[in-house]
Amino acid sequence: MADEPKPYLTYPVRDDVDLQQSPPYQAFMRWCSDNDIPEETGKYITVWNETPVRAVLDAYVLDENGQRTYDGDGAPITTPVTYTAATLPPIQNSF
């Protein structure tokens, strides 16, 4: 089996409204919106430079009341959800 290609971008989703105001993050949120990726429902987005562009959102697993669920260590439980995008995001890898 071939190795997974290196991601173009792995980007944390920001919950803090003040941190969402930076121009690069605003551009990232517009890219998500333009590609119907609900970034506010996840923890990280990983993007690969493929055709079509593949984006995987680590989406929060919600309980019956719509609240995030947590594991025994208090970390949010996530599940990968794959989307395709028309273009690469307007930012490059943050870490």
Map the helices and strands.
Blueprint (H helix, E strand, L loop, with lengths): L8 E4 L10 H12 L7 E7 L4 E8 L17 E8 L10
Antiparallel strand pairs: 1-2, 2-3, 3-4
Summed up:
The chain is α+β, with helices and mostly antiparallel strands and 95 residues long. 13% of the residues lie in helices and 28% in strands.
Notable traits:
95 residues; alpha+beta; four-stranded antiparallel beta sheet; 13% helix
Can you give a write-up of this model?
13% of the residues lie in helices and 28% in strands. It is globular and about 35 Å long. A 4-stranded antiparallel β-sheet has the order 1-2-3-4, with no helix packed on it. A hairpin with a 4-residue loop joins strand 2 and strand 3. With 95 residues, it is of the alpha+beta class. The protein is built from 1 helix and 4 strands.
Largest sheet: 4 strands, antiparallel
What's the overall geometry?
globular
The ordered H/E elements are: EHEEE
Name the strands of the widest sheet in spatial order: 1-2-3-4
Q: What's the count of strands?
A: 4
Q: Helices and strands: which structural class?
A: alpha+beta
